[in-house]
Design brief:
L-amino peptidase D-ALA esterase/amidase, 11 helices, alpha+beta, 6-stranded mixed β-sheet, 407 residues
Length: 407
């Protein structure tokens, strides 16, 4: 897709939109000499924290370190690098992740155990710590409320544009802000996709409620996107809540909790859709909606399978209204439905009825397929549940990008 303009605005945005959050970024030349590739996100006060991590059995050292530290439900900073995943590096990988956290902690004057670590980039390559640690020192030393946009740039790998957003809502008469940034373009598949996501909020919310809200939001956003069917070793989404908005502490399943949860889901939706739209080599975003399924699980399984089908993705790239590939993907998804009831639409054009062929306008279908967003809808006519998944088309450029990614 066409590159988007990268902003260098100093206005608080993304991970620094919420009160009390700062970020800094540096050029450490980990992989490229002219790119910001280290960032530090910092809360001026200790925060409640939660995370969701890759389900890949092979987990990078930063993932293992952050999982362990989040057992306390607290954090105050995250240090992130792009250009090297620090994955499959054995004991040295963990030493390097610990060193990154220690360096950030020393500059920020906070306890080491309050610093989380994330990395993204090439797997199985030693971390160039002679470059990384000076980068961490520099990034931690320049944290500011205006550093959000630069931080979003620093975590990019094959992304063509930075991904950040923020929302505001009223909780108990107080204005609460939730902001976030994410990276992801390739090695993307549900079960946390191949992505890094960092979310900050000034809401006062208990550790348990924060964790519950994050899982709810991730299941309906990041876990419903797919680019290429690969689940990474480094995936994580982390949230910190520092309470500086001054709202009454959210401790249970209250109206305020539900409002916060939906606002968090809105942030995650925006970031997840941006990742799917920016899939490596992508020319189109694919949105797959399953309606009237018997269970939410059935709807989710079918939507993800269609969005992830290589044949569907190739057909969308080629502007081919091949609805047979759509119902085929739903059929192997594991979802329970009656194939003889399924209607399929491409945009507003119905292309199949009751699981069978239907005379439709190829011209109108082609028009629906040529848009920058292609919508596919399957109606199971079996119940009240629905789900939406997002992906992208599969183009020639995906092969070009990944054929020489390491070199």
């Amino acid at each position: 897709m066409a590159d988007r303009k990268i902003t260098t605005e100093n206005a608080p945005s993304g991970v620094t939109a919420a009160a009390g959050f700062m970020a800094g970024a540096a050029m450490a030349a980990i992989k490229k000499a002219d790119k910001r590739d280290v960032t530090v996100i910092y809360s001026t006060v200790p925060a409640s924290a939660a995370g969701v991590f890759t389900l890949n059995k092979v987990k990078a050292a930063p993932v293992l370190l952050s999982i362990g530290r989040l057992a306390s439900g607290k954090a105050q900073a995250v240090v992130v690098n792009s250009g090297n995943a620090n994955a499959c590096n054995g004991e040295q990988g963990m030493k390097d992740a610990l060193a990154m956290a220690a360096e950030a902690a020393a500059v920020l004057n906070i306890p080491e155990e309050m610093v989380l670590v994330a990395s993204t980039g090439v797997i199985g390559k030693k971390m160039p710590m002679d470059k990384v640690l000076p980068g961490v020192r520099e990034a931690a030393g320049v944290v500011s409320p205006g550093g959000g946009s630069l931080a979003a740039q620093a975590i990019m790998t094959t992304d063509t544009y930075p991904k950040e957003t923020q929302v505001r809502l009223q909780l108990g008469g107080k204005t609460v802000t939730i902001g976030g940034m994410a990276k992801g373009s390739g090695m993307i598949h549900p079960n946390m996709a191949t992505l890094l996501g960092f979310i900050t909020t000034d809401a006062a919310i208990s550790d348990a409620c924060l964790k519950q809200a994050l899982r709810y939001a991730v299941e309906r956003s990041f876990n419903m996107i797919t680019v290429d069917g690969d689940t990474s070793t480094n995936d994580m989404v982390v949230i910190m809540a520092n309470g500086m908005a001054g709202n009454e502490m959210i401790k249970d399943d209250s109206e305020d909790f539900r409002s916060f949860r939906e606002a968090l889901a809105q942030v995650c939706d925006k970031l997840a859709i941006d990742i799917a739209r920016d899939g490596e080599g992508a020319t189109k975003l694919i949105e797959v909606e399953v309606r009237n399924a018997g269970t939410e699980r059935d709807a989710r399984l079918a939507a993800k399978a269609v969005a992830g089908s290589s044949l569907v993705k190739a057909a969308i790239f080629g502007n081919d209204a091949n609805w047979g590939r759509v119902i085929c993907a739903a059929g192997y998804s594991g979802a329970d439905f009656d194939p003889a009831k399924v209607d399929i639409f491409l945009g507003n054009v119905q292309v199949a009825k009751d699981g069978g062929s239907l005379e439709f306008s190829e011209e109108l279908a082609l028009k629906a397929l040529k848009g920058s967003t292609v919508k596919i809808m399957l109606d199971f006519k079996s119940g009240p549940f629905s789900a939406t998944a997002w992906g992208c088309d599969l183009s020639y450029d995906y092969i070009k990008i990944n054929a020489d990614y390491r070199t």
